[in-house]
Amino acid sequence: MSSQIINVLKKKVAKKTWDNWFSTFELKSVEDDRVVFSVANLFIKDWLQTKYGGVINRSIHEATGKELPFEIVFKDGELSKEETAVHQQAGSLLKRKPLMISNLNPEYTFENFVVGEENRALYEVARDVARNPGKYNPFFVYGGVGLGKTHLLQAIAQETMTNFPDKKVLYITSEQFMNDMIQSIKENNIQKFRDHYRKRSDVLLIDDIQFLIGKKGVQTEFFHSFNELHDAGKQLIICSDRNPEELDNFHSRLISRFQMGMLMTIQQPEAETRFHIAKKLAQRESVSLPDDVAMILASNIDGNLRRLRGAIIKLIVHSSVYNARIDISLASRILQSFASSPGIPSSQKPIDQIYDAIERIMKISREDIKGNSRNKEIVLARQLVMYILKQHFGKQVVEIARETGKQHPTVIHSIKKIDKSVMMGKGSTKILYDDLIGLLSSRSAAV
Ligand SMILES: Nc1ncnc2c1ncn2[C@@H]1O[C@H](COP(=O)(O)OP(=O)(O)OP(=O)(O)O)[C@@H](O)[C@H]1O
User: Fold this and answer.
1) ipTM score
2) Where is the AAA+ ATPase domain (predicted)?
């Protein structure tokens, strides 16, 4: 029966697809309640689950006559050093994706951050912060969605760790701070939480502070952590999608703390900078983007750089799957698919906007998402709905539970799960999320 599943699956996908994506895919076991496959890479695992979950399910059904769910695990737990080296040297694009070891994305470095005139001053100060912790305290960076704030924060974190191996550098989102706080209260151990943030970090970086809008209790806790660290000369680095003054419903004393150090904004990159960013984004995927292709992408996609990245990833995946050259004609087709996907009307309720975006990008209907199917793609879509409601539209867990008709623990679990993938910049879930946010951010009020 084991080989039958693979045989059926092999017949259902094109040879090229099989060679590109299933070369390390093997059947590990068929159990009473599930089928387990293994692959040799984190990114492929994620990609197969998302893109080929449906066909894998159908193949299992056809071969076994049962509706068994499946799971994909790493082969032998993880890649051996030799395998990693081989995969880094050669093979398909996907095999070369690095495995993440910390909550910092190894690609978010200063070397990978392209500096145009518009952000030169910001870049210089950021490097200075990593060389001289405590000099500009706090360092507060704000600016629009997808302009590189997280990248810059993580670059400061990584460079500080290199410059000062003895310093304890802690990077978190303000949502994680809140979750840790709630967890510690549940476990009746708030002191441990306080010690963790106040005593065990020399450099604390907090991403997306705007998430704490309206959460007065967490703000108070953060205020005390801020003061204790600041008084002890520890470096604080904070970023937000808006100026501190625009943090509505924030304690005024916290806002004035944010304003007392170095406050800088991250600017939209000009077309020339976008050209260099496009080249760099491709280089991060070990692909060299021809100048004319980088040019056409940079001049057609502005604003949120995740859209630019999304287009480049699509280009690379397309060229890998269809064995096509990355040239102007392919880039134009990709751009057309971006342009022909009209915006989502912003007059709709957030949840309807998200359903629409998912239907367009993942081809999964709202009925499926609202239902109870455990199909992996549908489960992922459901989790993305909850995560986007929270992150992008600032909804509370109670509201999300009400709007999606799911229980609180399911909502919390889903948000955590997607947050982890997004934070780690992990594979296809992150790409999907970026695509969805790109589409939602470009919504047209006209429709
Ligand atoms: N100057 C740059 N050079 C190279 N890559 C960049 C630059 N700015 C942004 N990027 C890339 O663009 C993508 C989006 O950046 P990032 O996630 O840091 O944006 P953000 O401002 O934190 O977004 P959000 O407001 O949603 O939190 C990332 O892949 C990042 O590496």
Assistant:
1) 0.98
2) 135-327
